[in-house]
Amino acid sequence: MELRVLRYFLEAARLGNVSRAADNLCVTQPTVSRQLKELEEELGEKLFERTNYAIRLTPAGELLRERAEDILSMADRTLQDFKSLKEDEVVGEIAIACAESRNVNFLSKCIGILRDDYPKIKYNLYSGDSERALEKLDKGIFDFAVVVDNVDLEKYNCLAVRSVDRWGVVMRRDDPLAKRDFIEPKDLLDKLFRG
């Protein structure tokens, strides 16, 4: 599985069209089509459902898209790291996963301070849940993660950030809970959607 072919695959998946992908990649459409067919044969899975005018990812294609993005991200970062070895100044990329919380403010302040001293460092921020962030941290996709869950201190080095997220509930004015000064989680149990 070559990185070049994974780039072809991702571009075709992104555009939903092999001809437009070939144009963007500056290669011929038959070349991209052949490479994608060989990739399907190599993996033993159909990656695209094809129609006359478009292509759409199969479940196997969705899995490969996610993995190919991770693989290419690591390959690009590795290449960038080797380029930075040739220079005296600090350059490179840092991939950071951050759960959606108030900690984003803390993280942005830290990046601002670092940027003053090391302006050639690029920061790639990814938002998502803690479980996915830790999974990609384990694979080396992220350099570090800012999470809101408790973390296994045997497995990770950790720095506690003293920040508290404040959550609220939006409801109709005529709801009985709207008359209260505060609401506890147990008050919302009967409001849960049951499927």
Write up what this structure looks like.
Helix 2 (18-25) packs across helix 3. 45% of the residues lie in helices and 12% in strands. It has 195 residues and is α/β, with parallel strands linked by helices. Among the domains are: 3-70, Arc Repressor Mutant, subunit A (Orthogonal Bundle), CATH 1.10.10; 87-146, D-Maltodextrin-Binding Protein, domain 2 (3-Layer(aba) Sandwich). Strand 3, helix 5 (103-117) and strand 4 form a beta-alpha-beta unit. The chain has a three-stranded parallel beta sheet with strand order 4-3-5, sandwiched between helices. The protein has a two-stranded antiparallel ribbon with strand order 1-2. The chain is extended. The model has no long low-confidence stretch (mean pLDDT 84). It has six helices and five strands, in the order αααββαβαβαβ.
